[in-house]
Amino acid sequence: MRRVSILGATGSIGQNTIDLIARAAGEYDVVALTGAGNIAQLAQDAIALRADIAVTAHDHLLDDLRDALQGSGIDAGAGKAAIIEAASRPADWIMSAIVGAAGLAPGLAALEQGTTLALANKESLVCAGRLVLETAGRHGTKILPVDSEHSAIYQALIGEDLKAVERIIITASGGAFRDWPVDKLCEATLDQASNHPNWDMGQRITIDSASMFNKAMEVIETHEFFDVSPEQIEVLVHPQSMIHALVGFNDGALMAHVGPPDMRHAIGFALHHPERRQLPVERLDLAAIGSLEFRAPNEGRWPALRLARETMQAGGMMGAVFNAAKETALDGFIAGRINFPQMAEVVEDVLARIAASDGHIAATMTLDNVLQIDHLARQAAQDAIHKRAG
Ligand code: NDP
Ligand code: MG
After folding, report:
1. Residue 368 has pLDDT above 90, yes or no
2. Which atom of ligand 1 is least distant from the CA of 38?
3. In a 3-state reduction of DSSP, which class is residue 348?
């Protein structure tokens, strides 16, 4: 039996992971499931999968979790330290699917096990890519990317020599506002931004898809994970979300990964790697689809892409600044304090402010230093939001 844990089990990626595991429950020994606010789901899944422990990120929900697990014999935990302890419990395969920089410390704890980490939490690569990869290297842990574009790149690179790669193209659907007039974006509502045309995902990544911050993060993720230069990474708008990424080689060949927009493919690939197993995803009928479209991204509509390039150019720990500013700006939009285009303005303000003033960026990348710069960037983003919100 393979021992598996899921960090962020109650979220969109977590639930898709559970769907795959529950279909072959006899093959898995579920060690730990973690969540935050959704105690009912966490307890229900922990009981159904007979997990050893269920942990919520929120200290004040410990009693609720205990009540929900009563009589099951499953341990309950709460708080940041309990999540890290759960991530440290021996397992053969761990899914890192907490949303945001909150996933960094648990992900690092999981990496210290020397087994396999399926990495959906792109924020940990954006804010501390080098630290994540060094930790994996030191402990001999295999990281399998779960972001659909990065799983696609990984698959296109199997058996290839990275030195023969000329470029990597990641596709973007364009999100909810792909065809909106740019001058109308300031009227975009939270509901409109939370509706993705192709993918069914958590609310935060859905809004990040509409603003292109998700793709901006993925460009940085590609740079960090595959160790290719920013100049080698291109973004291509592809409204149907069928081709997830393409790898271009020095002989002019492009290897594309094509599949339906269903995260269970990338999750299943990581779960069964190095085997391929049958997965419950739709088989594409290309003749019925007929045609696929591609467009160059318009950086005027999506300033996030330019900001990602500036972040990579600055190097050091600027990724942590970018991520923290983006998370705070997103909170500001969700709370109705700033409008949709102001999210990018806030991130731009923070990048300018911290780049100009701070020796923190060049400091050694440790978890403490990343968390410190994350904190500074969140404060700077709050100031930038306050300036706009009045
Ligand atoms: P969701 O918002 O759906 O789920 C997030 C998970 O993290 C939930 O289990 C949530 O708990 C938990 N969580 C929230 N805050 C904290 C915290 N402070 N500490 C610990 N746990 C917390 O997100 P997604 O599943 O959409 O995304 C998860 C990660 O995967 C993100 O990094 C995202 O970028 C990445 N990703 C997602 C894709 C998708 O299809 N959804 C595609 C590619 C990448 P609760 O719900 O109980 O509050
Ligand atoms: Mg993606």
Report:
1. yes
2. 47
3. helix
